[in-house]
Design brief:
This protein has 583 residues and is α+β, with helices and mostly antiparallel strands. It has helices at residues 10-17, 130-138, 281-296, 315-328, 341-344, 350-361, 395-406, 442-449, 494-499, 550-582; strands at residues 29-31, 35-37, 43-46, 53-58, 70-73, 84-86, 91-92, 105-113, 118-128, 158-163, 173-178, 187-194, 197-198, 208-209, 214-218, 231-238, 241-242, 246-249, 264-269, 303-306, 335-338, 370-374, 377-381, 415-419, 455-459, 472-473, 481-484, 507-513, 517-524, 529-539. The chain contains ten helices and 30 strands.
Length: 583
């Protein structure tokens, strides 16, 4: 029965921050023990009245946004305050199928007040597999050899990294991980690292699932190795257990690059979904992103937001948006916006929605599609000409778009294009099975783009997190480079499709432009970290990183020419000798 919650409860968040550590539950909420084996009864005893309720959550769940897995009223529906309750006998929340059986991992049990999210008490439990329970029992006695790591799970037996030298500093290649004999983990965590451990300020790699003794993980294409890294650390993970790390050294000189000073810096984000209350988590995420940008990129030419500014197209939400920017203070880069479906779909009319968008985001025109030049760089903003989930692009807008692409064109210079909705089957969130593409004129739009390889297109709308497959689509003969811009408000991934549950998080890109390349660097704004698997490089000579090795191509051409000259000399000498012999 417990419903999906769309409004974040600040009070719950505050208490979450100050919640007691494991074992500090008050007498109003206790469990019969702290650790359980999968499938075992979990007995909860809670004291309360009225609509006070108990809910169990995964340790990573975001209370107030993510629904509980199981829940019950303490003193209603046949339950009495102070009675024991097997959590499996409580109400199950439909949609949390991956957690219905409470698989091995860490969980949090809350006692909330009066059908809300004010926390009365909290306690923590760990669920382990039967194999782990037997292993823990065995390791209570000294073992002569092969003792498991202190964390209760064996480290990988070996790790190798075969790098493809696509460009200086490229991470492209294969990470091969061999599990310890008889100890297959659920997954692995890998980090860029140095002698001190995982690099500070970087997330783990995108998830590495383990299905067999040997796991081959393809590094995300066109991504960059941090200059500070000299190795990769890999940990085996099984539920809440994590092994000691195993390291593999990076090839000598693989990240010995120096791109110099960028020509300019900027940031791209989308889906900020501002609400009226400044206490709303979306508003807080946006404010934190601005703070991050001011600190790291004081010379930024601008922050470009790719749609969904106001969560419900309300004027007061736009006022909150402006207030957040004003509160960020002097030194905040200018903010530029394209329009999203949320900006157009909830006002009294489409015309009123456009009026509010243009009034509060202040483009140079009263149209929802427009362009501008900043320091000689072309920025083009497209937008739907009708309310609704999908983008509706008229023939007039498409013709205008093609004309603008051709305006003062220089194929070695990027053209940045912003359209909130994504082009089908291009980047994360837009694939047919994910169902978050949404351009009604997708064929016509793609036909225009194919002739402009210097375009870098940013797609929002889907919220797909940057660790997802295909956050970047490299240029080919049909389309230019395209990026999934994720979301500042909250995140989504393939697992969210079945559960309909978002992921707490906030992401965007830092852009650094050079003469021959663009760095598109994924950023976790909440934790202030670079997203290791989203540190992308785009080459400008043809929009594809294949040509970053143009210097190598020159060498090949020279070598071929030299070979031709040598062969010609040999043939000439042979002919001269033959002629001399015939004289």
């Amino acid at each position: 029965m417990k419903r999906f919650i769309s409004v974040i409860c600040l009070f719950a968040l505050i208490f979450t921050i100050i919640m007691p550590t494991a074992g500090q539950a008050t007498d109003s909420l206790v469990t019969d023990k702290d650790e359980y084996i999968e499938g075992e009864e979990i007995i909860v005893t809670a004291e309360g009245e009225g609509k006070d309720w108990v809910g169990i959550y995964h340790i990573d769940d975001y209370v107030g946004t993510t629904p509980s897995i199981y829940w019950y009223y303490v003193a209603q529906d046949g339950n009495r305050s102070g009675d024991d309750k097997n959590i499996f006998d409580a109400e199950y929340t439909n949609g949390r199928t991956d957690l219905e059986l409470l698989p091995a991992d860490d969980y949090v049990i809350y006692l909330f007040a009066n059908d809300g999210y004010d926390i009365i008490s909290v306690t923590y439990i760990t669920i382990i597999t039967e194999e782990e329970a037997n292993s823990n029992s065995a390791t209570n006695n000294p073992q002569p050899t092969n003792a498991p790591a202190q964390s209760g799970i064996s480290a990988p037996a070996s790790v190798t990294y075969t790098r493809e030298n696509v460009f200086p500093g490229s991470a492209d290649g294969t990470l091969t991980i061999t599990a310890a004999s008889g100890s297959l983990p659920y997954s692995y965590k890998a980090y860029w690292a140095n002698a001190s451990g995982p690099l500070s300020g970087y997330t783990a790699f995108a998830p590495i699932e383990c299905y067999d003794e040997v796991t081959e993980y393809q590094m995300v294409s066109n991504t960059l190795i941090p200059k500070e890294a000299d190795r990769i650390l890999v940990y085996a993970v099984k539920g809440s257990k994590i092994s000691d790390p195993v390291s593999v050294m990076l090839p000598e000189g693989c990240n010995d690059y120096d791109f110099g000073t960028p020509l300019y810096e900027m940031q791209v984000m989308s889906d900020i979904h501002i609400n009226v209350s400044q206490n709303h988590i979306h508003n807080q995420h946006f404010a934190k992103a601005l703070e991050d940008i001011k600190s790291l990129s004081p010379n930024s030419v601008g922050i470009f937001i790719n749609g969904d500014i106001a969560d419900h197209s309300l004027e007061d939400e736009y006022k909150s948006f402006q207030e957040i920017i004003n509160n960020a203070g002097s030194g905040t880069p200018p903010v530029y916006c394209s329009v999203g479906n949320h900006d157009l779909s909830y006002a009294s009319s489409y015309e009123e929605a456009v009026r509010l968008f243009t009034q509060y985001t202040e483009p140079a025109t009263d149209s929802i599609y427009f362009d501008q030049w900043i320091n000689g760089v072309h920025f083009i903003y497209l937008g739907s000409e009708a309310a609704g989930l999908n983008a509706q692009l008229s023939n007039t807008q498409l013709r205008w778009f093609e004309e603008k692409l051709a305006e003062n064109r220089d194929e070695s210079r990027p053209i940045y294009v912003f359209l909130h909705q994504g082009l089908i089957d291009t980047v994360a969130g837009t694939f047919e099975y994910q169902k978050w593409h949404g351009i009604n004129q997708s064929k016509e739009f793609a036909d225009i783009l194919k002739d402009y390889g210097e375009v870098i297109l940013f797609s929002g709308h889907s919220h797909w997190e940057m660790d997802s497959l295909h956050s970047m689509k490299t240029r080919d003969s049909k389309l230019p480079t395209i990026f999934n811009t994720s979301s500042v408000a909250y995140l989504w991934n393939d697992n969210s499709m079945s559960s309909n549950i978002g992921i707490e998080g906030s992401q965007g890109y830092y852009i650094k432009a050079y003469e021959d390349k663009i760095l598109v660097l994924g950023r976790d704004f909440v934790n202030g970290q670079w997203i290791s698997s989203a540190q992308f490089v785009v080459m400008l000579d043809n929009g594809n990183t294949d040509n970053i090795t143009s210097g190598g191509m020159v060498i090949i051409i020279i070598a071929i020419a030299a070979a031709v000259v040598i062969i010609a000399c040999v043939v000439t000498i042979w002919l001269l000798k033959k002629r001399k012999n015939n004289m």
